[in-house]
Amino acid sequence: NQTILLKKRPIGKPAQTDFEFVKDDADLSVKQGELLLETLYVSVDPYLRGRMNDAKSYAPPFELNQPIKSGIVAKVIASEHPNFKEGDYVSGMLDWKTRQISNGEGLFKVDKNKAPLSAYLGILGMTGLTAYLGLTQIGKPKSGEILIVSGAAGAVGSVVGQIGKILGLNVIGIAGSDEKVAMLTDKFGFDHAINYNTTTDMKSAIAKAAPNGVDIYFDNVGGPISDAVLFNINKFARMIICGAISVYNNTEIPKSISVQPFLVKNSAMMQGFIVGNYVDKFPEAMNHLTTWLTEGKLTYTETVVEGFENIPQAFIDLFDGKNKGKMIVKI
Ligand code: NDP
Q1: Ligand 1 atom nearest 153 alpha carbon
Q2: CB distance 245 to ligand 1 below 6 Å
Q3: What separation in angstroms does the CA of 326 have from each of 164, 280, 321?
Q4: Distance (Å, rounded) from C-alpha 230 to C-alpha 234?
Q5: Contacts of 193 (CB under 8 A, 6+ apart)
Q6: DSSP calls for 202-257
Q7: Is the CB–ligand 1 distance for residue 247 below 6 Å?
Q8: Ligand 1 closest atom vs CA 273
Q9: Spatial distance between the Cα atoms of 116 and 76, rounded to a whole number of angstroms
Q10: Where exactly does CATH 3.40.50.720 map onto the chain?
Q11: How far apart are CA 245 and CA 123, in angstroms?
Q12: pLDDT tens track for 252-288
């Protein structure tokens, strides 16, 4: 049995040396009220970077020399727990371990006949919920409006754009490669897509894609891309600040333009979003996501990396844009 510990707090971009693989000697015998889990799929997510810093945030920092945790789908190998039986599949926040004992807290059963198991870490998991709830709760979309999404080819962004289309919006995506922008229009039905790595003047490129301005901005990246969007917002625009991956590895406070004049001039709203604040809306969101998925209105893509030993690299690769859709590690 193996586990991955946080060995050092990353400085700048995370590196392999920040992680340590160790043999886990924990007792795996199952006592009353417990279950033994075997890890099948591990979600690696940009937000884990924040938990690797020793800083106050909405989730407590990971402790040094302790296992890292993330969303995991696991198989129940043995159970002495009344709610779970051997052979069940579960999803929850679990340790980066090949096998582990759980008391069942925070685990929910997932059905592999309804969707592939990895989907419960993406479209039918945290990132799908984030896309739906961020867009609807803060974005308050109205048919015919213009939505722009940064980090558009990733797990959250690709779902945001598709939900935007379902709700009748005009959708523009921003992503980091020609292959990704082609995927946005061809596979996910976005109206326009911009490659920020090959575009020298993002402000003008956005103005060209959205000649009538931007009503809703779903922001996954922050930094200069978001600055360029600000120049194009309309009166009463809503900006959902979901993430800021472009600055997660910064070692200095980022230099951004001052947002206040843009907000005042346009009576616009900018609001931070944390999916965990909307637990009461999860059933509604899951209902929509599942229905749209079954009806074929929503689709998704995954980048699946194989092997427990590749979890840290898959995580690091998020910061180099190596994923399309949800980054998953299959054990
Ligand atoms: P993604 O699947 O989008 O993966 C990360 C992507 O970010 C990469 O593929 C890359 O795509 C892009 N990226 C990396 N570095 C940069 C950069 N410097 N500038 C611009 N883009 C960059 O991850 P998720 O969908 O899981 O997460 C997206 C965002 O949403 C993150 O900021 C995350 O923290 C946030 N989030 C927030 C939640 C909340 O409750 N607030 C919940 C879940 C996620 P590219 O090739 O296009 O650069």
Answers
A1: 47
A2: yes
A3: 18, 24, 11
A4: 9
A5: 152, 172, 173, 174, 175, 180, 181, 182, 184, 185
A6: HHHHHHHH-TT-EEEEEESS-HHHHHHHHTTEEEEEEEEE---GGGTT-SS-----
A7: no
A8: 41
A9: 17
A10: 126-276
A11: 20
A12: 988 889 999 999 999 999 999 999 999 999 999 999 9
Query: Beta 233-241 vs 214-219: how paired, if at all?
Result: parallel
Looking at domain 126-276, its CATH superfamily turns out to be NAD(P)-binding Rossmann-like Domain (3.40.50.720)
User: Closest ligand 1 atom, CA of 223?
Assistant: 19
Cβ–Cβ under 8 Å, residues 105 and 77? no
Q: Which tokens is 262 given?
A: 């843009």
Does residue 275's CB lie within 6 angstroms of at least one atom of ligand 1? Answer: yes
Return residue ranges of the chain for CATH 3.90.180.10. 2-122+301-330
The shares of helix, strand and coil residues in the chain, as percent rounded to the nearest 5, are: 30, 30, 40
Q: Is the pTM of this model over 0.90?
A: yes
Q: What is the pLDDT of residues 50-77, one digit of tens each?
A: 999 998 888 899 999 999 999 999 999 9
CATH class as words, domain 2-122+301-330: alpha beta
Rounded to whole angstroms, how far apart are CA atoms 152 and 235?
23
